[in-house]
Design brief:
By secondary structure, the chain is an alpha+beta fold. It has one domain: Double-stranded beta-helix. Helix content is 25%, strand content 26%. Helix 4 (113-123) packs across helix 5 and helix 4 crosses helix 7. The protein is globular.
Length: 247
Amino acid sequence: MLVPTLSTASVEQCVAQLRSTGAVRLQGLADRESVARVVPRAMKVQRQRDSGPDGLATVPRLHELGLRVTALSGHGDAELATAGCTLVHPARLKVLACLRAPDQGAAFRLVDGLQLYRAMRRRYPAAAAVFSDPSAAFFGGSGGVRSAVFACGTGGRVALRLRLDALVDWYPAARDHLVELQDVLARVAVVVRLRAGQGLLLDNHRWAVGQEPSAAPYRVVQALGMSHQDLPYGFLPYRALRGGGQA
C-alpha cells in the first residue's frame, strides 16, 4: 500500500502492483492535503475541468449528477466508465481518495478489463470481436474519438475504453451486442467500499469505475494523470506458455 510517508520503497511497490493487477489500495489519506502530497509521487497530475489548484477534483455524488437508471447500462446508478474515454489519449492513472464516509463506506463498482475481456471471449466470442473493432463506438461529441472498447496493441496487449451513457454512439454491429456486454459487466463487476482515509490507485486503461447509490453523505476526491514510470500498454489477456498455447 502507498502511504503518505512517500518512501521510495512504497512507490516502487505501488508501481509493481500496477504492472501486475492495475490496482493499488491506498491508506493513511487523512485529508485533502495528504492526498495532494501523495498523488504527485505516483503520477504527473493532469488538470481536470473541476480540479482545484492541487489538481484534485471532488467526485459528485449520484444525486448531484442527476443520474437515473437507464436501459443501456442495466444499473444506471453505477455508470461504469474509464476516465477521459472521449480523449485521444486518456489519462493512464486514476486516484480515488475517500475523505469522509458513512459507517458502511463509500461504495464504488469496479470492472477489471482483463476479466471483462476474458469473459467476453469465453461467453460471447462474436461480441468480443465486434467490441475489439476500432470502429466499435464514437466516444464523445464533435471533439470525441472513434475507438474499440478493447483496443488492441502490440504483443497481444489490450486497453479498455468504456462508457455506457448518451455520449457514446455505437456502430450498428456493436449496438446489436450491447446485451451481451451488459451481461458480462454484471458478472465481473465487484463492489469496493472505501472508508475515510482509504483510496485506490487504478490503471485507467484497465479498470472501469462507477458509483454505487448511497443515502448517507460522503466526500471523495479524484486525480488523473500519467505515470512517471514506464507502464506497458493496457493488459495482457493471456500468458504465453512454453511450447505454445496460452494460460
